[in-house]
Design brief:
Layout: E1 2-6, H1 10-22, E2 26-31, H2 34-44, E3 48-51, H3 60-70, E4 76-80, H4 85-94, E5 98-101, H5 108-116, E6 121-122, H6 124-144, H7 150-160, H8 165-172, H9 176-190, H10 195-204
Parallel strand pairs: 1-2, 1-3, 3-4, 4-5, 5-6
């Protein structure tokens, strides 16, 4: 297996190289930025690109997107200290084969081996997040296709949780009248009669 590693922290970069080579994996090159990640992938075309996400300039997700656009079969594995939902969602959207945390040193080599064999790999903490993240993200996309804005979807979620107009107004710092207007527009867009139908649609989506 031949890989390229990209991380903007020199100490982390060398540590990763040592750990990975000790596992019998060939490290073709290392880089410190998203821009380097793209260039190194084009030069070496490794079996796997192991990349950090948060880097100055071109971040890891943007770099991975550029690589995958030109090389659709590329395998990208993200390794990061961040488990924020936004990062996980973006990693999934860009087509990455995995997303694991740097703290899981023992899992790095097995993760690379799994990705090399064609599997998708997500660390334990990430796996626990996936069901709620994917469900919310998929629902948001489905409602967006019907013309629902982010704010309107936020209100739909609160309605689905059983909150009253007053409670929604308090949580979103809006007036009850504004919430009623939002709901009226939402029902019109979705061609529904009432909030009960809205809740049913939300949970069926």
């Amino acid at each position: 297996m031949r890989i390229v590693i990209v991380d903007d922290d020199s100490i982390v970069l060398m540590s990763l190289k040592t750990i990975i080579e000790a596992g019998g994996i060939q490290v073709l090159a290392t880089g410190k930025s998203g821009a380097e990640a793209v260039g190194l992938y084009e030069k070496y075309q490794p079996d796997i690109l192991l990349s950090d996400i948060r880097m100055e300039g071109v971040d890891g997700i943007t770099a991975a997107g550029k690589v995958l656009e030109k090389y659709p079969e590329a395998r990208v594995l993200f390794l990061t200290t961040f488990s924020d939902d936004e990062y996980v969602v973006n990693a999934l959207k860009c087509g990455a084969k995995g997303y694991i945390l740097k703290q899981d040193f023992e899992g790095i080599v097995p993760a690379l081996q799994a990705v090399y064999s064609g599997q998708s790999v997500f660390g334990g903490e990430i796996v626990n997040k996936l069901p709620s993240i994917q469900t919310t993200d998929t629902r948001a996309e489905k409602f967006a296709e019907k013309g629902i804005t982010e704010k309107e979807f936020e209100i739909i979620e609160l309605v689905a949780k059983g909150l009253s107009n007053r409670e929604i107004a308090e949580q979103l710092f809006l007036s009850e009248g504004t919430v009623r207007n939002y709901l009226s527009n939402i029902l019109d867009k979705l061609e529904l009669r009432d909030r009960t139908q809205l809740v049913v649609m939300y949970y069926r989506s």
